[in-house]
From TrEMBL:
It comes from Nonomuraea maritima. Residues 1-69 form the HTH merR-type domain. This is MerR family regulatory protein. One of its GO terms (biological process) is regulation of DNA-templated transcription. One of its GO terms (molecular function) is DNA binding. It comes from the Bacteria. PROSITE patterns: HTH_MERR_2.
Length: 116
C-alpha cells in the first residue's frame, strides 16, 4: 500500500510517516529507487516504534537517536564519554588498576598480625 493508506491505518498523517522515515524509524525500502510500499511487517514495525515512544515518553527524534547510539560505535563512545564526564556513568576501571588493587590487598593481608 502507498503512504497515504499506511498513514491512515496507523492513525497519523502522511507527513508524520515521512518524518519518521527521514529519521530512520522505518524499515529500509526493498528496491532502490522505487516508491515505498508498505506491507504488514512495515506497518507493524512503525506501530511498535510509536508504542515505544508513548510507553517511554520520548519523541520520534529521541528514539531515532537511541538507535544511532546502538548502531554507530563512534556515537556510542561519544555518549558514553559524556556520561562519564557528568557522573551518570561510572568510568571503566582499567585492568592495570584492578591488578594494582589486588596486589595491595595481598600485601595488606601478608602484613597482618603474625600467628605464633
Amino acid at each position: 500500500m502507498r503512504i497515504t493508506e499506511a498513514a491512515k491505518r496507523l492513525g497519523m498523517s502522511p507527513r508524520m510517516l515521512r518524518y519518521r522515515e527521514a529519521l530512520g524509524l522505518l524499515p529500509p525500502v526493498r528496491e532502490q529507487g522505487a516508491h515505498r510500499r508498505f506491507g504488514p511487517d512495515d506497518l507493524s514495525a512503525v506501530a511498535h516504534g510509536v508504542e515505544l515512544e508513548k510507553r517511554l515518553d520520548v519523541s520520534p527524534a529521541e528514539l531515532a537517536f537511541a538507535l544511532r547510539v546502538l548502531t554507530e560505535p563512534a556515537v556510542a563512545a561519544a555518549v558514553r564519554d559524556l556520561g562519564v564526564r557528568i557522573g551518570r556513568i561510572q568510568a571503566p576501571r582499567r585492568a592495570l588498576d584492578f591488578e594494582k588493587e589486588k596486589a595491595l590487598r595481598l600485601l595488606r593481608s601478608a602484613d597482618g598480625p603474625s600467628r605464633g
